[in-house]
Amino acid sequence: MTTVYQTTTMGEARVRVALVDRGSADLLVHRAGSPGLAHGDALWYLTRARQSAALLAYFTSQGMAQLKVCFVDSHGEAGWTKPHPLRGRL
What's this model's pTM, rounded to 2 decimal places? Predict the structure, then answer.
């Protein structure tokens, strides 16, 4: 399950994420409406409860990011756009 908490400091994050346009993205992400619907790498539920998060993410610039993400409107569009070292590890 990919329940994501946005950290305010880079040091506590497990992954640094940049929000980019679709053409530059490593991963197209669809926001799930509930934690139960968030599964795999591409369906994220953004939570305000740090203790319930499976992934701590810090949103930063492209130059500092480990992962470039674009949020998409439909579940069918979500997924990896290219091979990436974090694939299957979120």
Answer: 0.92
